[in-house]
Amino acid sequence: MHDNDGIMKEIARALRAHRPPVSASFDERVMSAVRRLPPHSRFRLWSRLTTPRTVTVIPLSWGLLAASVALFAVIGVARAFDDVQIATKPMITALFPNARAPQPPQRVQFVLVAPDAKKVAVVGDFNGWDADHASYQAQHRGGGVWSVTAPVPVGHHRYSFVVDDSLWVADPTAPRVVDNDFGVANSAMVVQEQK
Amino acid sequence: MEGSSDGVIVARVLRGDVDAFRVLVNRYRDKYARYAFHMLGNREDAEEALQDAFTRAYRSLARCEDPERFGAWLFRILVNRCRTLGARRGRRARTFVVDEGAILEAAEDHPAERNAWREEIDRGLQQLRADQREAFLLKYVEDMGYDEMSQLTGVGVSALKMRVMRACDRLRELLSEVHSA
Amino acid sequence: MNRGVQIVVGLLCVARTVFAQDARLSARLDKPTLTAVTAIVDSARISKLPTAPLIDKALEGAAKGSDGQNIITAVHQLSVRMGSAKRALASNATPDEINAAASALDAGISVRDLARLRAAAGKRSLTLPLAVLTDLVGEKVPIPTATNLVLQLVRSGVKDAELAMFQRNFRADVDHGADPTVAATTRARGFVVARGGGATTKPPE
Questions:
Q1: A13 in any annotated domain
Q2: Would you say the pTM of this structure is higher than 0.80?
Q3: Largest Cα–Cα distance of chain A, in whole Å?
């Protein structure tokens, strides 16, 4: 048998020599996924335009035009949608003094008792149903109790818990939404501004 | 186009030639499938991680600082995808799936014997902690130096050395048990 | 200049919305589904319906691993319900009210009852009353009973905080085994009486 000194070399050699076959359709699957993404020639221009910059409101006619271009640059960061809503609040108020400023999101606590879970996330129409969204990952508090306090905009929302990235669980303490178009019922909530 | 350097192909893709990306997929697919397979333990997960890495690389291509070293940059993305996928699936019982396709690989002198040995190694690898397995594969299979590994993983050199050492100790133990049984 | 700036910012906000929608949907939907969903969203925008719920519905379907046809059907049905909701609630209904009303329609509440609620509520937001109504129906309180209870609550002037309390108490009762209709009726009576009305009080027209 292999002596201990040589065994690491044997292992490394065997692993290096291994070329696991990849499915014949692999390349095509990657290219299909890639073609669904925004093409690059527009994307580069967009990313240059949307790099966040400091925005100042200048209350003169040309200044307003410059401010609206800067507003465009800030707003265009699609993935920072929620942050942008908050960031543009003073801008909108300055440009439209009579307009009602958007209400800030409220901090809402979500709690689920799931003793066997290894991961619990909150998903809903406030975070694109994204189970990997960093702000909506619940922490285990002990005894199978998971909770997270996270921002939710004021208004009517549908949401759910996702356990271990695979199991969708409606909030047992919340009303259900009847429309379970996709075979799994969601929960409903109405978030109101704290005065 | 196939013979062009990574930098040339990346520049074409960034000018809007989506199909040029296929050359990079073809170029790096097999090389990195090996790492993903040994890290995750089965072909399906490995292909998912690899496909995900390519898609992310495409999406972020404008941010690749050194397009001539696209491969290394892609590999960094793959290492991270394997960590994420491994963490999500790692709590299920780790079973190493025998890859029927791999058994029919290109002829070697004693293909059945070599494959059985490699499968034992892979079973042993799957019993390591993920961070030890990662460090072991980067050091022994991808042949990286510790400084390079540290840059790739964000982990300090001494911690990496410890992980590699523990991985080796554990693998020796597991594989000696198999052979003395 | 003010008007000019409004137009510029309005156009930019539409561009923002379209691009944000493109990025999130195109990252998660296949091409045929994306094309169909985009058409439904564009049509809703032209009809001055809120588009965010439609995009969210598509994202929800993608997150749940649903196939393209199901996603398209769900988004289309939601847009139809939102159109009906908007007509029932009148043109100044807020996006949240339309969204909540669309859920209520899906639960079986009629367009006529939506209009009755609007008439009873006056300027007050209907978002929470609609959500409470949908919840009652979801817990199998018969639709006519649930609708009348919520109408009484709204007419008696209960505030949103009290309505939220009503809903919590109702759910707690149901969780403890109470019959939903009895629980809802009992709790509603308590609120209405506390505000100086009674279960038998004829609501003012």
A1: no
A2: no
A3: 85
